[in-house]
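Can't attach files on this board, so I'm pasting raw text. These are the components:
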Amino acid sequence: MTDVSKRRAVSHIQRRLIPSYVFLTIMSFLSVFPLYWMFTAATNTSLEVAQGKIWFGSNLVQNYRNLIANDNLWQAMGNSFFYATVQAVCALVICSLAGYGFELYHDRGKDRLFSILLLAMMVPQVATLIPLFTMISKMKLLNTVWAFILPGLSTPFLIMMFRQNSRNFPVDTLEAARIDGLSEIGIFVRMYFPMMKSTYAAAAVMTFMGAWNSYMWPRTVMKGNAVKTMPMLVSNMSNGYAIDYGMLMLGVLFASLPTIVIFFVLQKQFAEGITGSVK
Amino acid sequence: MKQKKGLGLLAKQKAAGWAFLTPASLLIFIMSFYPMVKAFITSLQTGPAAKLVWAEPILKNYTRMVNDKVFLTAMGNTFLYLGIQVPVMLILAILLAQLLNNKNLKCRGLFRTMIFLPCATSLVSYSLIFKTLFAREGLINAVLMSLGIIQENINWLGQSTTAKAVIIIALLWRWTGYNMVFFLAGLQNIEYSVYEAANIDGASGWKTFWHVTVPLLRPVIVMTGIMSINGTLQLFDESVNLTSGGPANATITMSHYIYNNALGQGVANFGYASALSFIVFILVAILAFINLKVGDTRD
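---
Top answer:
Structure tokens for the assembled complex are below.
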């Protein structure tokens, strides 16, 4: 086949794909536009936002001043970051230990326990809200990091993710390490953890983002300004009759920035985290 | 002697295994199962939060729902979102995945990233973005006005029908790319030779899609379908932040209504809220059960 005919065949294929390109371009535009618009709106005055200005403006600094004058932005950012980090670290330790235990030490009893734990997936968040709220307030833990993290420390989804990925951990290695005299916990720390880094990364991204974005639970147990998180802060900003849209969108931008950065920097772990599949 | 030592080691290993999984298991029992039982007990009780007493008759909280207009609206809304948003989203997601799975397509990665991007926003954030877009004085109205499609600003979030439409549009925006990723992964598992065979048999692209691709994607369709239904049953952030459940509770979701009953301003009706949440639990449980039956890959 000559170069010319090859090129002709290629251009024929590409021509047939034109409808696909058109459709995908429209869908991509629709997907990206609201976020692009969030960025531009953060730089415009409330009036400009309302009038539908879609280019970047010059009101960013003023919006920022208004934002920090009205709300304790950096405290909320700090709170969100602190709670989400603590939750991610603790949940990863607890759930990876469990996933490891369920897979590599599995026997009939543990398998049965695992299928019972899976039932927790059926429990809707709103159903446990009142009992958990009562429990946390009786323990005098309201407005503490414990109130924020306790319900999310152990989830069937994370345990399952670690359990499934633990199947790749070779049993031979385990036996060899035992013969070498490594303790059971030593095997976990020194061999399992380094080998499962990609699973940990995906799980960390997922847990951190879930905690950063969580709204219903923090709204219930984290009362008061000192313990406010970003979703609560921006949600409160949108109440009332005279909303400053420029300021609101800047707040939303701050609330979304960490997850957008994670999305672009750790896209692979992001996708694996939400689908729960690392191989 | 040797055997005894071996047994000791085995017992030690066994204990280690249990030690590894005990913290996580205990937490799930304390943070999920116990509250669920507690919620059921509370659903049979009535009175102020501090001194709950058994309801008289015992199922009073449950019978009350039948005449609760807001609850029936919330139920209706949930099923409306289910009936319209979930099918449209899944069809769109399959279509996009199918188009992106074409090896001849250029910029596949770029398209995929852009369509997947809405997943990077939190539920509160995107609710507020859409609230601003569809505000009475907002971009959507401004664009429609300048195009001459409308003569005066539409109060999107102030009318029950349009407010519901905005919620559906927002949900589609947030979750279509998310589901597309699952379908893309599913499509990539289908051998190319299957398509070649269909091609040789003279099947058109459309026929191949319906008779080859869709049946092979069935497990993914079931999984994403159940995940979406589950998510829709538990909608909360959107209802609270996008429409505040309004106008006049027209767009309120079940979770939002339960929350208002339990912890809303002025009311703390733990008994009734628990009964309502138990209904959601039953609906979610039925779905999760189907999911486990269909989606379990481990024997």
